[in-house]
Every structure is written in structure tokens, then in C-alpha cells.
Amino acid sequence: MATYQLNTSSDLIENPSPRCACMLVLDTSASMFGQPIRELNAGVQEFIASIKEDEMAACSVELGVITAGGRVTEQLPFTTAMNISQCRQFNATGLTPLGSAMKLALDRLEERTAAYRKAGVAYYQPWLVVISDGVPTDDWQAVAARARSLAQQRKMVVMPVGVEEADLDALGAFSTRPAKRLDGLKFREFFLWLSASMSRVSASASTTAQIKLPPTDGWDSI
Amino acid sequence: MALWGRVVTDALGKQRKLGKRLARGGEGEIFALQGRPDVIVKWYYPEVLDKRGDELHRKVEAMRELRDSDMTQDVCWPLIRVFDDRHRWIGFAMYRARGVKMGFLAHALLYERYFPNLDRRQIVGYLIRFIEIVQQLHRAGICIGDYNLNNVYCVPGSGQVTLIDCDSYQLRVAGTFYPCPVGSPDMTPKEHQGVAFRDIVRNPQSEAFSLAIVLFKCLMLGRHPYDIVGGDDPVRNLRRGNFAYGRGQRDVPEGAWYELWSELPEAIRDMFVTTFTEGANVPSRRATLAQWHAALETYRQQMDQGECARRLVKPGGPPSSGGRHVG
């Protein structure tokens, strides 16, 4: 699990763009084996590629990835999209420690926004996207309450997405907005939507204004 | 919306075909016009037309009355009414701006890709031209209101500047007031914060404040005047006049930013300091457009005479090679 450390502190100094932190918490448990994990991997790759196509967004969006599959793994510490060169494929294995994964995600987001403030970098509301096809298999209620409260204070946008048989009630407990169910395995459509949303956020001249997001009908189902 | 190839008509019923979609905005989409590479069409979204189509139509008509030949050259002004195949008004045609968004110029990591060999003299040249266009609009009683670096196009290698998205401008025609219904808090002076944009009446002093932020962001390669180390968000700092540079020099962001700032002539630095500290609260303390114009002209002469450096200190190198891998 080698992570090549970049001098990220210099990035906060040299790049004047306001930042939009986007943390992906991905369920990579055994039930995702096969087609689902392949589609998820392809979706993440496409997400990175399409953000990099929009240069303003590539300077603005900082992506972090944490997986919950058997154990919690920080696959990518927050990195500005323009500095991400490639993304390894995730494997599906083990149970779903989503509670611990979300706790790590919230800790990392808090550290990152503190670093922005220290470096004098303006930032948009960070995004926390959580995608799961099941139920968390560890303790999750306390961290769900923490995430929900941050979303309520509008310190964070928490976007829960359920795949196939996911427990939408449990996922929805992490946010003030209800969990959406992915239509089939439309991970690519979801990530293209996410990338378009990130482009809209980073094109906005204001770090405090509300942004109108693109419609979600390309990937969600009722 | 698949509008490519759709036929639109002008007021005389002459038909034209739309080309490719060029941009999507908050209120509508911009299309090329087949056979006229110099002309583009703004087509408002159906829901926008349903809600306030009449109001938009009246405003665009008022703008067409105001046009003069200078203005239409420097600003993508509505020139021709456009109707759909059922003769409903859906937007207007205008000339297409050439160049690159000023947002790419005002960015330490991106400017070199779009503006090779950019130096301070060229930046100052674009800014002088930008101020002249705004002054020309002000003389016609028009305020920009929504200052946004992505609505200013600069042609690399020349001094040419063109403004786009002008249907949001504030104007007064024949006794009717048309507000600028959009904006962003980071560019809006304190006295207009917290008010719905459509209820604001912009004036020369509010314009001068927002314009000063544009000047600062360009001369400082993307820094906002109210980004502050350890401080609050830019809007809170703006409301408090919490400007880090200049007198006292507390909390300037790390890096070469202070160097960029200190290379500006003292007269210009003083104008920024006054505008962003006392001027945040007291509109009459803000430097006027005429004062900015004169100061930047002097600065350009000083660079021509070798009294000031033309070179840009570069706060960032190119993106680090190698990058970071996941896994």
C-alpha cells in the first residue's frame, strides 16, 4: 500500500484556488465482488479523469478515498486533482466496517479544513460521499450522528448512495438528505454527475453561496 | 436539451440553424450559429422563460435601445432578438468574444498555459482596458453588478478585452430600472451583503469596490484580498475590512505572495489598503475608477522606463512531476 507523498503543504501555498474537498467512502466488502466492484473502479477512474479535464476544477477539487472492505484503508489522502496521476483498482473483500471508515473520513476532513484555514486558503463546503451496498457491520450510530450534525450546521455536504440491497435508512442516518439508490450499477453516471457538480462548485465565484446542482435523474432510481 | 440544428428565427422571420452548444449558464445556454462563426445565441431555459420571460424580454429590448457602436465592440451586447419555430421569444444573438477568461490569467498555476510570457505590463494593460470599458458603461448609466473574472475575456498577446454575460447588468432606460439580479458575496461590498441581489441598487462606489477585487486578483495571480491565514472565510473578512497586506502586514498567506505584493508601486498598494480597510466600511474612501486608471497608467509608464519590474514573481512552479498514486 505505497503512497507516494507529495509535498502537499507547498500545494496549499502555491495554488490560489479556493478548495473543494471531496472524500469518497467506498464499501469494498465481499458482497461487492464481481461486476459491482468493477463498475465502481471504472467510475472512480472516470471521475478523476473528468475532473482533470476541467482545469479550474482540477486546481480546486481535493480528492480523498477511504475504503471499507474487511478493514478500513486510506487509499488516497487528500490530493488536489491536478496532482493525482493514477488510481489503483480496489478489491472486494471482507465485512463492511463503514462506521470506522466514516469516522476516519470525518477526522481527515476536519484536519484538512484546519490546514486550509492555517494556510489562508478559502474553501467551499466539503463533500463526503458514502457508497454502500449493505449495512455497516461495526458501530456506526455515533459517527452517523456526528456526520449528520456537521451537515445540519452546513459545514459539510454528506451524500449517501445505496447500491442494490443497501439499507437506505442506515445510510440516510449519516446525512440531513435522504440516501439515494443507484439505478442498477450506474456508477459511471453517478461519478460523471459528481464531477459536473464539482465543476459547478469550483466555477462559482463565491465560497459561501448556494450552488444549483445538475439533475440526478441520470443515475438514481426511486 | 438537444437543440443542435434547431431552427431559430429573427424578428423578420429569417431562419437560421443553431450549431454546437458552447456553454451552460445559470439561466440559459449559449449556442453557435451555423454559418456565422462570429455570432452566438443565448437561449434561456424554458423554466426561466416561463417564470420571467416577459421581464427578461423587456430588459433585453431596453438594452438593444441603449447600444452604440463602441459598446457593441467591447461588450457582447444583445443585438438581435431570437425566436423559436413557434415564434416565441427565447433569447438573443450577440457577437462572440475572443480570447481567454480572465480567471485563467489570475491564477498562479494556470496563466502560463494560456498567456505564455505574461508579464506585469501585459496584466496592467488588460486592467486599464477593462477599466475603460466599465467607465464607458458607467457613462451610459449601466452598472456591471455581478463582477466575475470568468465574464471578462482577454486576448493573449494583445491588449484586447471583451465583456460577456451582460444581460445581467443594472440599467435604467426611459425611467424604468432594471436590477442586476445576480452576484456573489465574495465580490460584493459590505453595504450590499445580506440583501437579495435583485433588490440592490448598485452605484459607482459599490462598483469601485468590486472592481478593486478584480484588479487585486489579477495583479496577485489569483489571491483574493480577504484570504487570511488563520482567519475566517473571505466574506466575513470583507465585512470586517480584515485585509492582510499592507500596513502592519499581519497574516499574509505563506509563499511568494508577499513578494508579489511588495513589487507593486507604493501608490497602488496604498489604494488597495485604503479601499480594503477603511473603504470596506466607508464607501467614499474607496479609490474611484478614474484614480485606478490614472495609477495603472503611471505604473505602465514606470515599467516602460525601467523604474518598475515587468517580471512576475512566480508563487508556484508547474504541477509537481510524478504526482501521487492511489494505493
From TrEMBL, chain A:
Gene3D superfamilies the UniProt entry points to: von Willebrand factor, type A domain (3.40.50.410)
Domain of life of the native organism: Bacteria
Domain called VWFA: residue spans: 21-201
Transmembrane regions listed in the UniProt entry: none
Protein known as: VWA domain-containing protein
